[in-house]
Amino acid sequence: MYEISLLTVMSFSVIFALSLNLITGFCGQISLGHAAFYGIGAYSAALFTTDGGSFWLALPLAMAVAGFFGFIVGFASLRVRHDFLAITTMGVGFLFTGFVRQQDFLGGEEGIAGIPDPGIGQIPYMLLCAALAAAVIAFSLYLKRSWMGHAFDAIATDEDTARTLGIDVARYKLTAFVFGTALAGLAGALFAHYVKFVEVESFDFIESISVLAMVIVGGIGSVWGVVVAAAFLSVLPLLLQVFADFKLLIYGVLLFSVMYFAPGGIDSLMRMVWRRISGRRTAA
Amino acid sequence: MDALLSIAGVSVRFGGVDALADVGFDVPQGALLGLIGPNGAGKTTMMRAVTGMVRPQAGSIVLDGVEISRLPTHRRVRLGLGLSQQIVRPFAGMTAAENVALAAGYAKTADPLRALATASRTAERERAGALLDLVGIADAADALPAELPLGYLKRVEVARALALDPKVLLLDEPLAGLNTGEAARLADTVVDLNRQGTTVVLIEHNLSEVMRVCRHLVVLDNGRKIGDGDPAEVMADPAVRDAYLGAAEASGEARDAAA
Amino acid sequence: MNYSDLLIQGLVEGCIYALIAVGLTLVYGLLRILHIAHAGIFTLGAYVGLLLTNETGSFAAAFVITVVAVGFFGMAFYRLFYEPLLDKPPHVALIASIGLFVAMEEIYRIVFGATSISFLAPPLKDTVEVAGVRLEEGRIAVVVLAVVLIGGLAVLAGRTRIGIAWRATVSDAAMAESFGIDLARVRYINFFVASALAAAAGVMVALLLNQVIPTMGGVPAYKALAIIVLGGLGNVKGTLIAALALGVIESFGTIYLDRVLDRDAIAFAFLIAILMIRPQGLFIRR
Ligand SMILES: Nc1ncnc2c1ncn2[C@@H]1O[C@H](COP(=O)(O)OP(=O)(O)OP(=O)(O)O)[C@@H](O)[C@H]1O
Ligand SMILES: [Mg+2]
Asked: Is residue C87 in some structural domain?
């Protein structure tokens, strides 16, 4: 059913966007190659279940594999900052697609088809995705309030000063990378078992930019803003044919206009509206 | 020697400039040591070498028996350094109280996973409130850094360093931007803290406050140490007078005239 | 293919990378913006050059008009899109630039169609022999162009008033302004030069491949980013060396690394390896 697919797509997109928000939003480390980890999760889950492995084990497996590579990339990222980091992570994305294309065991250009159905039916699968999305939202909200969130906040603002307060910046960044990439892997596994077919194009630079668009449009670091943006942007191409035809154009224009007119994204717009409403209430 | 902080043979070169050339001095337990010298003498560079923000080409720095000169900044801080920087660096998105509370939570931020396990900030907020009160800016607790004048930000910086419960408090020109009354009050606070057991290294251009509160002076000029000892004796040394006092008195007079 | 073939192919590719990357590094040096949309300007050059050639029948005339026109387009682009963002945090311009690039590719697709366009009569397709290697005239033209344009720029930068103003601004904008240099003018000229070079590269790539498609800017653009980072962000000499080196490495890598990585990923493998050793790039900016 149509609504079921929409909700399923929305759910794993929300997980994917929040996973990047953890790295880029909370911890301030820009990543232009996040789709690689979505892909790593999707491919490892797909390989595992097409080989007869259980879907339920595939989810933690995908998280572990993506998180492992996230750890390595995070480690590399410790050496570079700002623009150098942006290009390094972009490079990681290209390395991933460039590697997968040449590997027979990953299906090369053709990809992996015939990924088995999780066998629980469409509605329960949608509910599973939604429940996991809800869990990731709750986790994000909690993390932001926890001391880890404060430390991330300090690192995102000024990592040198964070060090003078005794914060081990490297370990926090690594943690952000591992958490964020593991969650991207989870989203990738859910995606792979929804479409039942993975190919490298689904995880290329454009996909990295699309998920970045969700984070930016939502408001970097804002949980609810990113949830709203991811939910909308992920299903708009399914809802509106014009959007499907011009999806990239709209993403491009959105990225630019948000940066140009409202760098705080949906989050700052929601806050503004909220302030108006509560302002009026106190005035009345 | 039971120096709490012992610095020996530290040299820092920036390109062709010797910011510090073979400088060493001891900071005894319980000292209130003034580190002075004209502009560009290398005082801030020494502070940054102690905290690990610049890497000296040579030298050793021992804190409470531990050689720290190869350790990363955060490890040194956790071994007992607290730094208030000359150029204030508050976290722009946090209020003054949140800035201080983040430092006060140092035990909770020691390990990322432990940090994730705790969310309560009540104790740290209280501590932050008390420290802001101590440095005389309790009224600024809920203000964002952008809304505060320099004299306030300097004191947020000091409160943040204090929140780390340091063994050695490193203060780089904490009195700059404060009026005479505020400066004297903050200097008195530093003296109180020192009496309660905190060892303090104070970098200041405000010589009258330095002479009033410090019991030991180290003088730098052009990256070299030219004086080390009792304030009155050091100041009487002709070398110090020549190299330092000429310039400092002139700028001191200019500052007094401006005030 | 033997080694000298690979080397010459690599150098030709390297010259194209250089034409694209020099503009990118100029923009970075002056404004600290990673100008991803530079690739969109490259593609624009390819379309305009090819369509004008087909229209007028003269490749040379089309080339000159394209380079100048796209140069002016670059100035307008800067004025409209970047200038208002200059005082925002750095990620703002970066992300805006990515958005612009994605949008530009889409506009080309909508305007020119998703399928490729070719020259009616492909110019410079004869081959000549150079140092024992048979080469298309087009490839030789690429090398000549790169040497003439970039060499000419280097001379201008050293000798003319505006060149000196430009160098002063790159090394210290505030200082340059205090000496009465008109920063806005330097920035406009910078964008003119960068965009004109990208357009020249675009036309030449269109010529070598004898086709233009909306997404042709992607791969060279990302590689140009890798190159300017390797070259030490903002360092022109470093960028030139990195561009030529990458061209050659790719050309050999296609033979030896093909089983592991596809050609377009080699640049980034190389980049990441280098950054791990030298986090500021091969050549630190001066
Ligand atoms: N990061 C740096 N790069 C290059 N030179 C530097 C750097 N930091 C300091 N210097 C130089 O080192 C010398 C010492 O500077 P430092 O900031 O330590 O002096 P200071 O004693 O703190 O002066 P002030 O009283 O003005 O704060 C100066 O000549 C300064 O220009
Ligand atoms: Mg100083």
From this structure: yes
DSSP alpha helix (H) spans, C38-89? 38-56, 59-77
Domain ranges (residues) in chain A: 2-207
In this complex, the chains that touch B, judged by 3 or more CB pairs closer than 8 A, are A
How many angstroms separate the CA atoms of A117 and A78, rounded?
39
Q: Do A165 and B164 touch (CB under 8 A)?
A: yes
Candidate of B11, B12, B43 to mutate for ligand 1, largest count of ligand atoms within 8 Å of Cβ:
B43
Q: What gap in Å lies between CA A231 and CA C134, rounded to an integer? A: 56
**Strand partners of residue B5:** B27, B63
pLDDT at C262 over 90: no
In angstroms, the CA A93 to CA A70 distance is: 12
A158 contact B CB<8A: yes
- List, in sequence order, every residue forming a beta bridge with B228; answer none if it has no partner: B218
Distance from CA of A148 to the nearest CA of B (A): 5
- Amino acid at residue number B32: L
pLDDT recorded at residue C286: 46
**How many secondary structure helices (H) and strands (E) does chain C include?**
11, 2
Of the pLDDT bands very low, low, confident and very high (cuts 50, 70, 90), residue A284 is very low
Q: Is residue C86 part of a domain?
A: yes
- Write down the mean pLDDT value for chain B: 90
- The answer as to whether C247 is a domain residue is no
Strand partners, A112: A198
Which CATH number describes the domain made up of B3-80+166-258?
3.40.50.300
SS3 A8: helix
B85 touching chain A per CB within 8 A: yes
Q: How confident is the model at residue A84 (pLDDT cuts 50, 70, 90)?
A: confident
Please report, for chain B, the start and end positions of each structural domain, with discontinuous segments joined by +.
3-80+166-258, 94-165
Residue C279 contacts residue A80 (beta carbons within 8 Å): yes
Domain of residue C31, residue span = 18-216
β-strands B3-14, B168-172: how paired?
Answer: unpaired
Closest CA to B21 of B68, B61, B60, B58: B58
Instruction: Look at chain C and report how many structural domains it folds into.
Output: 1
Asked if the structure places residue C270 within a domain, the reply is: no
